[in-house]
Amino acid sequence: MAKIIVMTSGKGGVGKTTSSAAFGTGLALRGFKTCIIDFDVGLRNLDLIMGCERRVVFDFINVINGEARLSQALIKDKRVENLYILPTSQTRDKDALTEQGVEKILEELKKEFDYIICDSPAGIERGALMALYFADHAIIVTNPEVSSVRDSDRILGVIQAKSRRAEKGESPVQEHLLVTRYDPERVEKGEMLKVEDVLEILAIPLLGIIPESPAVLRASNVGMPVVLDDKSNAGQAYSDAVGRFLGEKIEHRFVKVEKKGFFDRLLRRTA
Amino acid sequence: MSIFDFFRTPKKASAADQAKERLQIVLAHERAGRDSPDFLPQLQKELLDVIKKYVSIDDDKVAVKLDRASGYSTLEVNVELPAPAKGAARAAAGKVAAAGNA
Ligand SMILES: Nc1ncnc2c1ncn2[C@@H]1O[C@H](COP(=O)(O)OP(=O)(O)OP(=O)(O)O)[C@@H](O)[C@H]1O
Ligand SMILES: [Mg+2]
């Protein structure tokens, strides 16, 4: 049975698109047929992060409006088997995202795919509501920082009240916390909220902790989901999160400051 | 104050601790507001209609507020009646304590 996952946060710029790309790619790497949909109408970005921006011909809104078939708009990833991207429209107005239109496309995708990832726009307006409405799972992307945690709490309230599962009185959307841009060094100095604090406040299960990492920017520069950079700690952390989502028991990594040996420090100085 | 306090640097809560505390306070408030039931506007309107049968008042003279504490909630209804023929305006306020699991 296909599952719909929304990647959401309330607050902007916390790493939803980065996480959608990495998580979706991670699922496909494990053999699940996965489609990532960009719900950020007017601010298309997933295509760049996935490196398929030059292959966009039709988009999500074209399909909703009946101007193109779904198969014409879906872009197959060139690196990973089983991975598809549905880009959003760059120009049209947000009202184009109708509930019936979105539902129809999701129903069609559900017949073909194992997982459908909805990359939500920031905020709690129409685009964000449409991205979360049909979800079975919600991954709440949160930075260890006051406004991000507050907005995550807010979006959790929206999911619990306004999702289809909530409206229909079905079993609730499964919530998962993904803490991103975590900097253990600053946490140790008491400058940044600990993951335990965020967890205590939001009180939902922890899916993963993605460290602040230069690999994320590097990957986005070349249009590659960071999970494919398996040497990077961020890439490994995303891969672990996918494993946990699928039910594997994996310990959290990259949460403590790595103790640097004498030679490491020496090398670092001279590097 | 002992002389030793002079040398001791007071242990201040770290920035992260302050962040956590502030979040816990603001979210406690926001979560309570979020659960406020949708029926309040309707209740307010119906109360107004009932009162209007007996006294003529303006629409903005009835205020309904729900407060939650742990274990019970208070529903506060404020009705401002027009001034009697002579004398100062007087407000009649009624409080209804509604038991419920907040
Ligand atoms: N773990 C990380 N380490 C370092 N930089 C990161 C990390 N995660 C995300 N970023 C950076 O943060 C910025 C915002 O990321 P991203 O676009 O994924 O956020 P978003 O939540 O999708 O934003 P929007 O709300 O605008 O859609 C990007 O520049 C990205 O490179
Ligand atoms: Mg985004």
From TrEMBL, chain A:
ATP binds at K11, G12, G13, V14, G15, K16, T17, T18. Pfam families: AAA_31. The keyword Nucleotide-binding applies. Keywords: ATP-binding, Cell cycle, Cell division, Nucleotide-binding, Septation. InterPro entries: AAA_dom, MinD, MinD_FleN, P-loop_NTPase, ParA/MinD_ATPase. One of its GO terms (molecular function) is ATP binding. One of its GO terms (cellular component) is cytosol. GO terms for biological process: division septum assembly; negative regulation of cell division. Interacts with MinC and FtsZ. Belongs to the ParA family. MinD subfamily. PANTHER family: SEPTUM SITE-DETERMINING PROTEIN MIND HOMOLOG, CHLOROPLASTIC (PTHR43384:SF6), SEPTUM SITE-DETERMINING PROTEIN MIND HOMOLOG, CHLOROPLASTIC-RELATED (PTHR43384). This is Septum site-determining protein MinD.
Automatic annotation (TrEMBL), chain B:
It comes from the Bacteria. Keywords: Cell cycle, Cell division. Pfam families: MinE. GO terms for biological process: cell division; regulation of division septum assembly. One of its GO terms (molecular function) is identical protein binding. Prevents the cell division inhibition by proteins MinC and MinD at internal division sites while permitting inhibition at polar sites. This ensures cell division at the proper site by restricting the formation of a division septum at the midpoint of the long axis of the cell. HAMAP family: MinE (MF_00262). Belongs to the MinE family. This is Cell division topological specificity factor. The lineage of its organism: Bacteria, Pseudomonadati, Pseudomonadota, Alphaproteobacteria, Rhodospirillales.
